[in-house]
Specification:
three-stranded mixed beta sheet, 7% strand, mainly alpha, 14 helices, 509 residues
Length: 509
Amino acid sequence: MTAIVIFAACIIGALIGWVVRRQTAERVIGTAEKEAERLVKGAETAAESSKREAVVLAKEEVMKIRNEAEKETKERRTELQRLERRLLQREESLDRKSEALEREKDNFQRREGELEKKREEIGVLLNKQKEELVRLSGLTPEEAKQILLRNLEEELSRESAILIKDFETRTKEESEKRAKNIISHAIHRCASDYVAETTVSFVALPNDEMKGRIIGREGRNIRALETMTGIDLIIDDTPEAVILSGFDPIRRETARIALEKLIIDGRIHPARIEEMVTKARREVDQTIKEDGERAMFETGVHGLHPEIVKLLGRLRFRTSYGQNVLRHSIEVAQLSGFMAAELGLDVQAAKRAGLLHDIGKAVDHDTEGTHIELGVEICRKYKEPAETIYAVESHHGDVEPKTLTAVIVSAADAISAARPGARRETLESYIKRLQKLEEIADAFDGVEKSYAIQAGREIRVIVNTEKINDILAPKIAYDIAKKIEAELEYPGQIKVVVIRETRAVDFAK
């Protein structure tokens, strides 16, 4: 019973709680609905207010844009009107110019017609004048033309002579002092010894009995020595001396050293001669190498091929017009270096080219070809620079110099060869050169007599005063100098002096 009462009480309590919660929920829901309605109404009111404000702002923005568009449109319309006015003005200006051009064209055509008529009238007058000139002068048009051309040629000749004189004066004023300073400076800093050209050597003997030992039984010793060296031994009446004769200086030097060694040793027979000749050759080869290295050291040129060094040493035994070729090559290298330094060029390249410019003379006794061709071939074979090859190829003027270094080497070669005492010339070739100089000058029209003086370094030319005036004198000097350059070979330079003299002679009686 108690359980039933408790159960019933629980059910009743649950129903009462449910009813209370429902009423509470309904009150909360009612309150929420009212709040929601209030919020919705507030939101609608705010939205309506924002809408009205947005519409007002939009109307204001539209009004502003419209005003700006109207203003811009008005400005563009004004600009277009201004452009239209300018175009109209230009069209009117072009129309006026076109009308003016039409009028000018009409005037031009009218004047052209008048000029054509006048040209025809002038042609008729010229023909009449030509006929009158022919009648008065007695010359045909061709004859008159020839006279005019001849006069024009004389005038041009005078003008060219004046131009040549002016050009020479300017050139001398600008370059002579500079060139003299460079060349004199180079020459003063370089001095070389001279070696006379010879084809014989003398070997001193301790006594005349040594001649018989050198000859040997039935001449076997002298024959062996001559066969092994290729040199002729001359044993004559010269006391205590033997003469070695031959054109190859290296062989002659080998024979001299071998003979001196045999004389000191005292044992002279074919086997001993062969041994001494072999030793002498080795000694000469060593001397050649040392001379080549000494030349490199003296000039400051380095990096040469060993074979070129040997060829340089061989130049010690080679002479040209009495001038030792090795000393000449060293001198040319030094002169080239000095001049290159003065001109701001590559000093080492100039020295190298100057030292090797005559390298072909080391082999021209044994090989076919000029020393220039052989020198170029040697330089190319041993990979010398192109600048050196150009200098070797052009130092005698056979080809045009391609570089400034080649020009410097050519000048240095001429300076070294032209110095007083540097070269020895045979009397016959010297006289022939002087005669040829005078023949070249005498061949020119207007020359009365010419005289080669100063050992062929200068030629004085006496001209006819009636044929050659003061203006033409420089031109004939220039022409003679050019012909000498073309037809003669000579060391240094030759001065051409043209003398025009007017004399007035009278007698007192």
